[in-house]
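Q: Entry one of two.
A:
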Amino acid sequence: MSVLEQVKKIIAKQLDMDPSELEESTDLQEAGFESLDVIEMIFNLEDAFKIDIPFNANETDTSQMKTVGDIVRLVETIQAGGSMPKISTAPTSETPAGETPA
């Protein structure tokens, strides 16, 4: 089974739908995913693919996890030894030094 097929199966089970209803371009939020679903999906992906996804709800940039295809690429990147993007908490020109970005 391909990574795409496995990811679709995991997401479809969480959303109580048939995997054939999901495409790589399917937007997870539009399909019904909520914030807690992301956490559950991370656990399910780790179990299914025997990988460690360094996910922290306060630090992980979930903007790279919007579609089914994004999740497939995330799994493939981690399998290849890559890592997830993190949210930068460094001050920017719009964030005064000493303050945390919102």
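Q: Entry two of two.
A:
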Amino acid sequence: MLQLRPNCECCNKDLPNESLDARICTFECTFCSDCAASKLQGICPNCGGELVVRPRRPADKLARYPASTERVFKPGGQTGHGMNSSPPFLSSVSSVSSVVSSRGGVPRVEGSLPPHQRLLIS
């Protein structure tokens, strides 16, 4: 379920659930449409992903599934998971002992993690 963060990470503008102005990436970094277009050119500064219009939660679902109240504000637009670092979902992985190699043009990942937890890097 989406967190529906309450503000733009770049300029701190309020972005309530009903706002048509909110843009998010796949990690839910949240920006207003002005910052997304003018400062960020539609690309998340944190992960490099595309910024798209954030969906709105139907009003009758907000009571049971409220929007987040946690504000993330980084005036430069970059939060803790920069494009050259691991995304936040990987922070729970304590050690990754995988070796990435390519054989015959097909990327292969070896390691002790189950397949659904491995990153495929070509």
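A: Comment on entry two: The mean pLDDT is 76. The radius of gyration is 17 Å.
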